[in-house]
Amino acid sequence: MASEKLNVPEHVTIIMDGNGRWAKQRGQERLYGHKEGVESVRACTELAVEKGIKYLSVFAFSEENWDRPVEEIEGLMQLMLKAISMETPTFQKNGVRFRVIGDFSRLSQKLRDEIADCMKLTEHNTNLQLIIFLSYSGKWDIMQAANKFIADNASKMKDGEVPQMSAQDLAANLSTSGIPDPDLLIRTSGEQRISNYMLWQTAYTEYYFTEVLWPDFRKTEFQQALDAYSRRERRFGKV
Ligand code: IPE
Ligand code: IPE
Ligand code: MG
Fold first, then answer.
1. Fewer CB atoms inside 10 Å of the end CB: C or N, the chain?
2. Torsion over CA of 69, 78, 62 and 25, rounded to 10 degrees?
3. What CATH number labels 2-230?
4. Cα–Cα nearest to 208, from 225, 220, 190, 222
5. Which residues make beta-bridge pairs with 133?
């Protein structure tokens, strides 16, 4: 049975973990693992386009990752810069819309410019949205959404009134506004935690954990996760 044809998720998100351990196993610096991890992003993007997945998002750098050694952070940001400029022609060829979500205030101007250029260039592509979560955390996102809502509404209140925020109001102010919540969340490297990723948006997401380290997670491994997803029964609290 062509099970991969069944239940293709609209939005798959991946916590790409295990690059450092992958490098260490080979007696290399952590950055070597991050570099190889870029190849996994490329492979998964290709498969996502082939399978008709509309949104592929990846957690590339968390707010907490700013506490890593400065050399690793700089290496990762350089890698990001290089990967974006190298991949842009492929995005155009494959109809991939590229987006980055996160707290841009901590990124270098050069990286911000590169991101803005690639986002602008690819904004009308419709096959797949590839969304990179960079300098992102779930708590940050919820807090900035709440603050944005208050800033937009406080001045509209009459004396003594307090703005009331609905779930729709909060979702509309999240940095992921307009993007459907993930159907499937994959985490590699055997860790089974959310690590302050999309907290609000994953309320009903299916989780898939694998021992495979991110640099080894390629099309075959991604297909296995999609097959597992297609066998899940989602109930959303109903009977
Ligand atoms: C994931 O791999 C990439 C980032 C968090 C930037 P790690 O760098 O966390 O690798 P491990 O978990 O130490 O093996
Ligand atoms: C989560 O991985 C963040 C990203 C993949 C970007 P970490 O390696 O930072 O998470 P913890 O520290 O193991 O929870
Ligand atoms: Mg890790």
1. C
2. -60
3. 3.40.1180.10
4. 225
5. 59, 101
65 is catalytic: yes
End-to-end CA separation in angstroms for the chain:
28
Alpha carbon dihedral 106, 171, 14, 95, in 10-degree steps, equals: -90
d(CA 34, CA 186): 18
Is residue 16 in contact with ligand 2, taking CB distance under 6 Å?
Answer: yes
**Per-residue pLDDT tens digits for 159-213:** 889 889 999 999 999 999 999 999 999 999 999 999 999 999 999 999 999 999 9
Pick the catalytic residue from 7, 65, 125, 196: 65
Give the phi and the psi of residue 113 in degrees, each rounded to 5. Answer: -65, -45
Determine whether the shortest distance from the Cβ of 123 to ligand 2 is under 6 A. no
Q: What residues form DSSP beta bridges with 187?
A: 15, 209
Digit-coded pLDDT (tens) for 63-87: 999 999 999 999 999 999 999 999 9
| Cα–Cα distance, 122 to 219 (Å, whole number) | 24
Q: For 99, phi and psi rounded to 5 degrees?
A: -140, 150
191 lines ligand 2 (CB under 6 A): yes
Instruction: Mark whether 103 is an active-site residue.
Output: no
